[in-house]
Amino acid sequence: MKAYFLSRLLREKVLLLSFALLGAVIWLSGVGERAGAKWRAISATSTDLEVQRRWLLQRERIEREAALAIEHLDPTRSLDGVRLSSELATLARAAGLANYDVSDSRTARTSQFAVHSVQFSVRNADIGALIRFYQALGQRAPYLGLEQFALAGNRANPAQLTASWRVTSVEIVR
Fold first, then answer.
1. Which of 30, 86, 111, 123 places its Cα 20 to 30 Å from the Cα of 165?
2. pLDDT tens digit sequence for 124-172
3. What is the DSSP letter of 77?
């Protein structure tokens, strides 16, 4: 290879060297991109681990505050999955909502309580009824909570709205 290179004219040598350098630059840029992606992944993982470590260091305080908060809750007012769905239907009717849908309840359990969540959707409602429903939900706090909300206008009739809520309830396990 050395003899072949040395036997070439100067312009061919320059051209071959420039191709070799161009290939090396392209290869090194790919290596740099992969190394940067790896570095960002390592940095993100380190940050996540640090956040988790901080939460774990506060575990006793969080459990103490949760136990104190549970003592002030009335277990008779807490709702299971079925009561959550029926309570939302009652609140919707009281707010004047007619075209609504309540999905099946999903439950996450801990040693002290269970958190039930449902997706509640309303189609073709006016803004006043939606506000009344939202205010009724707020009056039931902390037994009912709003996790997610989406609102969209009806293209055929801009005065009518479609809304979707993810509503959660806390059931105290004794």
1. 111
2. 999 999 999 999 998 988 888 888 999 998 888 888 899 999 999 888 7
3. G
Per DSSP, 97 falls in state -
Q: Is 159 left (phi over 0), alpha (psi -120 to 50) or beta?
A: alpha
Token reading at 131:
């506000």
Residue 57 is which amino acid?
A: L
Nearest Cα to Cα of residue 160 among 118, 89, 97? 97
Alpha carbons 89 and 74: distance in angstroms, whole number: 22
Rg (CA), the chain: 31
Give the span between the Cα atoms of 98 and 130, in whole angstroms. Answer: 11
Number of Cβ atoms within 10 Å of the Cβ of 173: 13
CB 141 within 8 A of CB 72: no
Q: How many CB atoms lie within 10 A of CB 126?
A: 14
Q: Would you tell me the crossing angle of helices 59-71 and 10-57 to the nearest 10 degrees? A: 40
